[in-house]
Structures are given as structure tokens and as C-alpha cells.
Amino acid sequence: DVAGAGAVLADVRQTAGESLLSRIAGIGGEVADRLAAWDREMSTDSVEAALFVRVRELLVEAVCAAPVLRALRRPTPYDDLLAPWFSLPARVAVSLETLLGHNRPLGLDLDALLRDALEEAATEGGVTWGSRHRFAAPPQRGAGHAPPLELPGDTHCVFATGWLPGSEQSVRGPVARYVWCLADRDASRWALPLGAAGDPASPHHHDQQVTWAHGGTLPVT
């Protein structure tokens, strides 16, 4: 079923936030109640998805401020292309579920830090996840940047659009999405983050971007 397989690739349900959500529920409060009712869909129009990420981001920032991590807060010597992979907040974010599984990791009281994060998040205005999570294409000589489209998904979704703490840009994502039908090649579908042409002057340079960003696919030609 080509359509069914394509729908799986566009799944935006957050599957790795259980430890954080459980901690939040244990603390309670207005934000905790809202997140308890959240369907865990990282959709572009979801205010609760943005709220979840904001709490997560504030907790990551608090962990990064720990004195034991001071030596890791130096700027990376590498260029902007590689910087996200050497970012301390990005590394802490990836490790957050592991940290939450330990008692006082790095000597930190995570419940106290999380309580502060919840209180701060409760004072901020509601925004949608898409407004904080946008496509970021690497710059290419002689080409205008591809539009910074709103993106669904998250680091741990099937629609894996990588989150970078402190930034509104997604720096990772599926480099291709395809469903290949062995019974009927003409039924096969695909989508690329930009387009099928590498030449910035080509009309096919980023003509697949909108379809890809919406989780869709196009006929293989």
C-alpha cells in the first residue's frame, strides 16, 4: 500500500518524551495539565507542541549552565555547517532522556530545574510549533535561500526534523522520502528536501521543498 507506507514516513508523533512528561506530571501545575492533555503530535499548528519544546529547552539551558560543564561551553572552532553537532545544548538535548533516568546527574537537582522551567514557560505567550521550527537550507553560491518553511516533526519522530536548542531552525531532516512499489514502478513516490537538481539556477532546484515539508511525496519520473 503506497499511500499507507507514505503516511508512516510523515508520522509526527513525539515518542521519546515520556521521561520528561512523567517528571512534569509529578510536579504538576497549569503547564503540566496542558501537556497531560496533549496528543503528542508535533504538528506545525500545535501550541502544546511548542510549549513542550519550550519547557525542554529551558531545562536544557539550565543543565548547560552547570559548573561541571563550563569547559564545554567554548565556541566550536569549526564552521557554521558543523557547529550544530558540536553545540553543548544540542548534545545535552540528545542526552536528556538518559539524564532524566539518573538521580541528580552531574550533581543537579533536575526537579528543581524543571520546576523553574515550568514556571517560566507558563508566563510566556502561546506560539505554534511551526513558528519556532523552520527549514534551514545550507547557503549555496549564486542562489537565493530556499524559503524557511514551517516544519512539523521533531528529533525523535519518524518525520525526524532535528531540533537545535536556542534556534528556530531545523538543522537535520530526512535527505529523501520514498516509497518504492515493486509491483508497479509507476506507482512509486518520493520527495527531497529541495529538488532533483543541484544547480541553483534550475527550476527543479527546490521545487519539491513544499511537498517534503508537508510530509508528502511526488510520483517518481
Task: Describe the overall structure.
The structure is a single chain. By secondary structure, the protein is mainly alpha-helical. It has 2 domains: 16-140 and 149-161, Penicillin amidase (Acylase) alpha subunit, N-terminal domain (Orthogonal Bundle), CATH 1.10.1400.10; 177-219, no CATH class. The chain contains 8 helices and 5 strands; from the N terminus they run αααααααββββαβ. The chain has a 3-stranded antiparallel beta sheet. Strands 1-2 form a two-stranded parallel ribbon. It starts with a helix and ends with a strand. The mean pLDDT is 89.
Tell me the strand percentage band.
Answer: 5-15%
Q: How many helices in DSSP terms? A: 8
The assigned CATH architecture of the largest domain is Orthogonal Bundle
Strand line-up across the major sheet:
3-4-5
Helical amount = 25-40%
List the helices and strands and how they pair.
Blueprint: H1 2-9, H2 18-27, H3 30-36, H4 47-64, H5 83-86, H6 88-100, H7 110-122, E1 134-135, E2 169-170, E3 177-179, E4 189-191, H8 209-213, E5 218-219
Parallel strand pairs: 1-2
Antiparallel strand pairs: 3-4, 4-5
What are the salient characteristics of this protein?
mainly alpha, Penicillin amidase (Acylase) alpha subunit, N-terminal domain, 3-stranded antiparallel sheet, two-stranded parallel sheet, globular, 5 strands, 8 helices
